[in-house]
Amino acid sequence: MSLALHTRVERLALKAPFRISRGVKTHAEVVVAELDDGSSHGRGECVPYGRYGETTASVTAQLAEAGRRLASGADLVAAVRAMPAGAARSALDCASWDLEARRGRSVAARLGRTPPGAMPTAVTVSLDTPEAMHAAALAAADAPLLKVKLGPEDPAARLMAVAQAAPRARLIVDPNEGWTLPILKAMAEPISRLSVMMVEQPLPAGDDAGLAGLEYPAPICADESVHTAADVARAADRYQMVNVKLDKAGGLTEALAMAAQARDLGLGVLAGCMVSSSLAIAPAMWIGAVAEAVDLDGPWWLVEDRPGGCRIEAGVLYPPQPGFWG
Prior knowledge:
Layout: E1 4-20, E2 23-36, E3 41-46, H1 56-71, H2 76-81, H3 87-102, H4 107-111, E4 119-120, E5 123-125, H5 130-139, E6 145-149, H6 155-165, E7 170-174, H7 181-186, H8 188-192, E8 196-200, E9 220-222, H9 229-235, E10 241-244, H10 246-249, H11 252-264, E11 268-271, H12 278-288, E12 293-294, E13 311-313, E14 316-318
Parallel strand pairs: 5-6, 6-7, 7-8, 8-9, 9-10, 10-11, 11-12
Antiparallel strand pairs: 1-2, 2-3, 4-14, 13-14
Helix pairs in contact: 1-3, 5-6, 9-11, 11-12
């Protein structure tokens, strides 16, 4: 049976600028993939990421090639596997899971698991001045977990500003590859005095050998250094946790394998996401269900999410309405 694959690019407005050490965005550009077999259809969403050389054009081109293969009768599973890990494959892989669900076999049935319920999620405090970050943390102070975006400039003052505004919250420190090893070591003292759950990807991927054997007051979590299950073992000597994101891994299929590999190696799992709609978060909640920590607040940043999508209230992520995905 041949399948039709349709793609579209959407530009989703954000409630506020989202800043990290690499730059700022005011919109999320997402690519939606829809599979149609004539009677059922499945949806998936991805966020092309410039850090990995992706653009909406490159992602839609990859999906167009996959669509041509599917229209010629290629097997869907084989078409997904033929794609490189990344955003395009994630959209198609997630659409394939949704298509199978709409044909009558849900994700829960395929995995033999109970569907994810409500789960605590980190709420992100975007990189800004210490005063602005203090105000943002105050606004999110009812969340039990805050992710704090930091850069190389005066990170201690910014971290302390957030901690003072939300003294009951646990913190994830995320420099997005923006620190050097000396900065990381200098930050050990303030981090040791605060309720920091982990430090995420402090050093650039490929320049993180200095983490091997490093004693630190909080676990170090790999993000940009680990994309797929094959990367996990190579990072196990430097990191104590891995951030599993569907758009890095290439979809739910590989993300589940990543999480399993991390567990086999004794590493913790952080379920992560890009700034996206609930269509990308719904499949990621299956990773959140097996993770030590969840950072799936993508829709929280949107002016308007998709109808029937997830809700985030007081730092708790609620599943989408039945039939939304999977």
